[in-house]
Write a structure and sequence with these properties.
With 84 residues, the chain is mainly alpha-helical. Helices cover 58% and strands 0% of the residues. It contains four helices and no strands. It has helices at 3-19, 40-54, 60-65, 69-79.
């Protein structure tokens, strides 16, 4: 399993917790349009949890232009030393 796949698994755990859905399955194309309860309020909670876990800060520009979980993965991999 490569780093991006492991990261996807870790992000799935964060999303499950924040969206209160233990059965949620994410893939790289998952987005707020395709994931139930991923609204603007929950997005703030998700982003805060990701920033805390990976010790990064998302820019406002990135938050507005990110389209899916794959974009989150790429940003985290490019900007965090916390990903194994």
């Amino acid at each position: 399993m490569d780093r991006k796949e492991r990261l996807l698994e870790e992000l799935t755990k964060i999303f499950r917790k924040e969206l209160e859905n233990d059965n949620l399955v994410l893939n790289y194309t998952s987005s707020a349009k395709t994931v139930e309860k991923w609204d603007s309020v929950n997005n703030l909670m998700i982003i805060a949890s990701i920033e805390e876990k990976y010790k990064i800060e998302f820019s406002i520009d990135f938050i507005f232009k990110a389209e899916n979980v794959g974009d989150l993965c790429d940003y985290i991999l490019d900007n965090s030393a916390e990903v194994s």
